[in-house]
Amino acid sequence: MTTRNLKTAKQGLQGTLTIPGDKSISHRAVMLGSFAQGITEIRNLLHSADVKSTIQALRALGVEFEEQATVLRIRGRQLADLHAPSEPLDMGNSGTTTRLLMGLFSRLPFDVELIGDGSLSKRPMDRVAIPLRTMGAQIDLTNGHLPARIHANDRLQGIDYTLPVASAQVKTALIFAALQADTVSHIEEPVVTRDHSERMLLAMQRPVERHQHTVIVRPGLQLVAPQIVVPGDFSSAAFWLVAGLIVPQTQLYLQNVGINPTRTGLVKLLQRMGATITVQNRISTAEPVADLSVVHQQLHGIEVVADDIPGAVDEIPMLVLAATQANGLTIIHGAQELRVKETDRIATVTTELNKLGAQVEELPDGFKITGPTRLHAPAGTMVSSHGDHRIGMMLAIAALITDGQVVLEDADAVDVSYPQFFADLEKVLV
Ligand code: S3P
């Protein structure tokens, strides 16, 4: 566990950053590429701990990966050509790897066991296992959690299912199983969540249909290997967008950012707070990409409701930080999903920002934030990521506007999604 002295931005942040590859899209590219006919080529894959967990799991089943310069090549396999792994598959810290693979692995001709780190082993897995079992999968969990055993299975049937919580991970797990089922599936989500899987299946010539909130999946896992260029991760860009707005004397230009509308809810919320974010050089292929620029601005408080959450689910910690600097009250409701992320983010965001003098109140399903507050760190102030990458990076941005010295415990957690985060911070610190 590493501690790190966080820096203050005395003269703002200036410059251009190229945002590293999207984590969600990287996982999906590796997983679907593993079963495509031909060689899938992936450029700008995110090289982070979570994506490594996905690659290692598939490699352990016999999928071949070859990395050359900046391209990852995958030689796709038929399910029947895979072999049983010699040991349990380690999901590390990655909820996406675990839940998506549970769907993908629900019709394998051999057993697999999934294990994970302490945080992942506390996260709910029954939300995926229960509907997958209805389809015929044989999955044993440990009191609803990892370790999980997925038993050999040769039959899946389609499902008609309404997700009780809006979750792209659960939706995707069911889509991956539905592609291997014998009958058609209808998967309905209460609020539309990130649609990267649906877009990637289209790029692999195996489209699914959408009618309003329902995804219709017909059987068949015949995927054509594509060439994928992973866009920059909007969730990583979010740290710089909010930094740009709240750090005085700042001007940032963010290149290559994925702006899929199911992911960019934070932009809309910041606009409601009064922000202007400039979008340039839009390119639309399978996933839309653009450059974003932002300068320091005064924001005002807003009210956030449940329908706003899925499009900004990973960015709420940054929204709370922005609200600590906004004029007036910000109230966030309907965010109870944050309690089952890498940490209970309602608790960790509140505890850690209040150590710096913020006025954040924890609600059962969100936050009440009074702004603006001057953040300060009396000598010896330690904050902690609690092992959660997004909490660590949010605190590093908070420290930029904090008087005094902030020390971050468990700073290495950022490696889960953004290993070059601190190097990028150095690039733009004036
Ligand atoms: C993800 C979906 C979201 C998000 C996670 C990545 C995905 O989780 O929080 O970081 O890649 O599908 P939920 O589906 O649990 O909301």
Give a quick summary of the entry.
Helices cover 28% and strands 28% of the residues. The protein contains twelve helices and 25 strands.
Q: Please state the CA-atom Rg, rounded to the nearest Å.
A: 21 Å
The CATH class designation of the largest domain is Alpha Beta
Measure the end-to-end span.
Answer: 28 Å
Bound molecules: shikimate-3-phosphate
Number of strands: 25
CATH architecture of the largest domain: Alpha-beta prism
* Number of spatially distinct domains: 2
Tell me what you see in this structure.
Helix content is 28%, strand content 28%. It is α/β, with parallel strands linked by helices. The chain has two domains: 216 residues, UDP-n-acetylglucosamine1-carboxyvinyl-transferase, Chain, CATH 3.65.10; 207 residues, Alpha-beta prism (UDP-n-acetylglucosamine1-carboxyvinyl-transferase, Chain). Strands 2-17-19-18 form a four-stranded mixed beta sheet. Strands 5-6-4-16 form a four-stranded mixed beta sheet, covered by helices on one side. A four-stranded mixed beta sheet has the order 7-8-10-9. The longest helix is centred in the middle third of the chain and has 13 residues. It is globular, with a radius of gyration of 21 Å. The mean pLDDT is 97. The site of shikimate-3-phosphate (S3P) has 10 residues, from α5. The site of shikimate-3-phosphate has 10 residues, from α5.
